[in-house]
Design goal:
Mean pLDDT: 97
CATH architecture: 3-Layer(aba) Sandwich
Low-confidence stretches: none
Number of domains: 1
Number of strands: 5
Number of helices: 10
Structural class: alpha/beta
Strand content: 5-15%
Order of helices and strands: EHHEHHEHHEHEHHH
Radius of gyration: 16 Å
Largest sheet: 5 strands, parallel
């Protein structure tokens, strides 16, 4: 079974581009370690997350980095850069366009790969060094992208992984930067939380 992790820097997590065996240091590595240990040889793990990506960037690479790989399962975590790039570079993707491109992406993947199972992951944000200066905007706009991602999952009857509420709850145990170093990028503990939620969703695919 071929599993593809797709998304931005949260998924990328420092992976080595020319070595598919190297899936970075984030939740894809933790998933690979867990599933690979439990059932040796059953799974092939590929990470195609790219730091800085927005939904339009993932769509631009739909052929090379999704369809041509022919994964059995794909998870996608995208949305925070669609907001962040607007705040910092005036090059974001507004919520309506985010939905339209996401919709096109999933429709085309499902047409090309009818048997694929897709997991949609909710984008998230906490207050931190990278977000506090524009916190109200970050918080409200990432929430909109999260709602759009959930709508896509519902439209196509896909598995959806909520993540924001869990991160909010975790901040009651330790400060925000313990989980997300700058309000966006997970620490090892933050990646562990995402891994746990990913595995719960994955196990439901065959339930």
């Amino acid at each position: 079974m071929k599993i593809l992790f797709q998304g931005d820097s949260i998924t990328d997590a420092g992976r080595i581009r020319d070595n598919d065996a190297n899936v970075g240091t984030g939740y894809p590595l933790l998933v690979k370690a867990k599933l690979g240990f439990e059932e040796p040889g059953k799974y092939e793990f590929i990470n195609r997350g790219i730091s800085g990506n927005r939904i339009v960037d993932v769509y631009a690479r739909i052929k090379n980095d999704i369809i041509n790989l022919k994964p059995d399962v794909m998870s996608l975590l995208i949305g925070v850069n669609d907001v962040w790039h607007e705040i910092g570079l005036q090059n974001g993707v507004d919520a309506d366009k985010f939905y339209k491109i996401y919709d096109m992406l999933i429709e085309e993947i499902k047409t090309a790969l009818p048997a694929i199972k897709i997991i949609i992951m909710e984008p998230f944000v906490l207050k931190g060094t990278g977000t506090e200066e524009s916190w109200e905007l970050f918080s409200s706009e990432v929430k909109k992208r999260a709602e759009m991602a959930k709508k896509i999952a519902q439209k196509y009857d896909l598995t959806f992984i909520p993540l924001q509420a869990g991160f909010d709850e975790l901040t009651e145990k330790a400060e925000e930067s313990y989980w997300l170093a700058d309000g966006v990028h997970p620490t090892p503990m933050g990646h562990e939380y995402i891994k746990n939620q990913w595995l719960k969703a994955f196990k439901q695919l065959d339930a």
